[in-house]
Amino acid sequence: MLGRMFGPARQHNFTRPNSKGEYEIAEGIGASIFNVILDFYKGGMLQCPEGVSVAELREACDYFCINFDYNTVRCHDLSALLHELSNDGARRQFEIFLEELVVPAMVSSAQEGERECHIVVLTDDDIVDWDQDHPPPMGEEYSQIIYSTKLYRFFKYIENRDVAKALLKERGLKNIRIGIEGYPTCKEKVKRRPGGRSEVIYNYVQRPFIQLSWEKEEGKSRHVDFQCVRSKSVPNLIASLGDGFSRPGATPTPQVDELDRLNGPAPPPTGSDPPQ
């Protein structure tokens, strides 16, 4: 390829120097990165020099279809190198978790008519024991639970959560949130409130969660909801809604909750008011 680009024939003439006499092979790949690529073709090894971003070298390897692993890359900054290798490993690992654990939970929610899914990842040793008469009051009963210590350890790292979120977005899912939240596992104690009411206090553990949707507008209603809110300062409901006005001396329009009490005939008008 390089021979055709820079050889004497240059049939297609698609390599032209810029104002500095330099040839731009690929947009975004600088001369220092391309020198590393040429060294790979000579000796089979990518030696990343100091001052060159490992992330940029990784992008160049993807462009030139060169395997980026420890067998082909040597770098002085081991932290940056291992970070890129961890991203590759996390992506491969989460693809397995996704097919074996996450997708079945999403399918279960979809079969019940849901348009979104909230998944909590517990360890293999976690035990959920709720009081049937006093369950947790926060809607945890609608969550899907995955028991997997491996997936729990995977989500402990924020970098892995970022990789998983990017992969889920590539698969067409929307409104993705991945984080750590408290989840109630078992009853800790019961408090008696005045009036004989009982309040159950649960033990909460910090566990990873995944929240996502497969619809474009998750959680949004497609119809208009009208609500009538009573105004404490304006007794006239119509005036409070801005749909009318009250003239001096007119009888105020009754409130909604007063209509039930107006079963008898209307009172006669006073002498000061004109006939209705």
Describe this structure in words.
By secondary structure, the chain is of the alpha/beta class. It has helices at residues 2-6, 31-43, 54-63, 78-111, 149-154, 158-170, 237-241, and strands at residues 46-48, 73-75, 116-122, 144-147, 174-192, 198-213. β5 and β6 form a beta hairpin. The radius of gyration is 34 Å and the shape is elongated. Mean pLDDT is 77; it is low at 221-226, 233-241, 243-247 and 253-262. Among the domains are: 20-76, no CATH class; 88-213, no CATH class. It contains seven helices and six strands; from the N terminus they run ααβαβαββααββα. It has a four-stranded mixed sheet with strand order 4-3-6-5. It has a two-stranded parallel sheet with strand order 1-2. Keywords: Cytoplasm. Residues 1-82 form the BTBD10/KCTD20 BTB/POZ domain. It comes from Chanos chanos (Milkfish). One of its GO terms (biological process) is positive regulation of phosphorylation.
Pattern of helices and strands? HHEHEHEEHHEEH
**How many E strands?**
6
Please give the largest β-sheet. Answer: 4 strands, mixed
Q: How far apart are the termini?
A: 96 Å
Placed side by side, the strands forming the largest sheet appear as 4-3-6-5
The geometry reads as elongated
The chain-level mean pLDDT equals: 77
Number of helical regions: 7
Backbone CA Rg: 34 Å
Secondary structural class: alpha/beta
Strand content: 15-25%
Query: Percentage of helical residues?
Result: 25-40%
Unreliable stretches (pLDDT < 50, length at least 5) are: 221-226, 233-241, 243-247, 253-262
